Predict the structure.
Amino acid sequence: MKNYKDYMDKLSVDETLHGRIMYRLTQAHTRQHADTNNLRKYIFTAACVTAILFFVAGVYLRINIWNTTPNRISSNIPNTTAEPELHRDKSDTLQQGSAVYHDVDASELIRQASSGKIPYGFFFNNRLIELVNINPGTKNNGVRWEERKYTKNDVESALQTSVKNPDLPDGDYTVKQYVLVDNATKSVIAYQTAYYYFNKDTLEFRNRFSVFYFADQYFRTDALEHMKNTSISNDGIFISNFPKPANVHAKVPYVSKLVYAKNDVLVVIEAEADFVQEDGVVDKEKSLERYRQTDKELVEIMKSLI
């Protein structure tokens, strides 16, 4: 090795070759330095991009956390706010078991024509107007029924009580909602949800179940006390003054109701059924069977609410 070094030390080159060698060495160092700087730039850029991506992902997740709600079908129908067992199909219907809601206007349903004049207080919504005690001496006691959508939460907040979801009868139905409004104060003093059952192919009306919620403070409590026919005991639900249908009257529809009270809040369910008519003739047996089935379903709805 010593002889090799001595030999190399004795070698010499002219100035031109020496300049070329030194120039090559300088350029190599410059390229190496530039490559190092470029690598550093690439690493820094990649780090910045990664940090930005993490930040954007974090913001996106946070937005989703605060703005995502459970995948539930909502409804303005009180007591039928969609639960997991409810399903919506392509025809814009809402199904709970075998009870199927259809977006149909109740005024389009075909009713059997009644030949007699129905008294004003025959249906409970009008009877309730007669029982109002806050505006004596004024027309309709200063109140009116107004069609208005509301939710179960609205009823619970107004009456300070819990409201259960009803077990609806099987069949096809639509819904209308009403509130009883005090004309003087514009406040709501009663709620009504009417479930109309019908033949979905012919739109023939079959029966109706109207659920009323209200506090007794706005009404004649003596009359309401007399109307109560549903109570709860240790043996279960007891129903009194609930006669079974025994006749068919073509002049007026069949109507029955259950009245229950707890903590000064009343729950009233009224059932209405049309008589069955075939070829222009009232079928008594089929009509009575419809009435009995309607009463049975009425009782089951009340049981599910109390």
